Amino acid sequence: MSAWSAAAIVVGVAVMTYVMRAGLILALADRPLPVPVERALRFVGPAVLAALAINLAAGGEGGPSLAMVEVAALIVAGGVALWRRNLIWTLLAGMATLWTLTALT
Fold it and tell me: CA–CA separation, 97 vs 105, rounded Å?
């Protein structure tokens, strides 16, 4: 496969992805979402954050690959999540802990 073919495939997939997402947004732009859908969408952010944390904890090579710094950051983030019940504060606390402890070690 030549570089031009690979670039054309990447651009084609990018355009198709954009059209699919923009099409859905434009189709629903002037309509209000049903209440159950709005209620369910509130949980997308926490679900994504939980999936990323579990992926980190499980490791990509089939076994746990957490360092103590990452465990500490997850514990702090979990505590802030229980205390504040706010995704942004949870993310900020966990990342601040991770960056601080990484810089100190």
Answer: 12
Give Cα 56 to chain centroid, integer Å.
Answer: 12
68-84 vs 87-104: helix axis angle to the nearest 10? 150
User: How far is C-alpha 99 from the chain's CA centre?
Assistant: 18
Given a contact cutoff of 8 angstroms between Cβ atoms, the answer to whether 74 and 97 are in contact is no
Q: How far apart are CA 4 and CA 10, in angstroms?
A: 10
Contact 101, 72 (CB under 8 A): yes
Is the pTM of the predicted complex or chain greater than 0.90?
no
C-alpha separations of 15 from 9, 29, 34, 62, 85 in Å:
10, 20, 29, 34, 37
Q: Where are the alpha helices (DSSP H) in 1-105?
A: 3-27, 35-41, 44-58, 68-84, 87-104
User: Counting beta carbons within 10 angstroms of the beta carbon of residue 74, is it exposed (0 to 12), middle (13 to 18) or buried (19 or more)?
Assistant: middle
Convert the pLDDT of each residue in 36-73 to its tens digit. Answer: 988 998 999 888 888 887 877 776 666 666 788 988 99
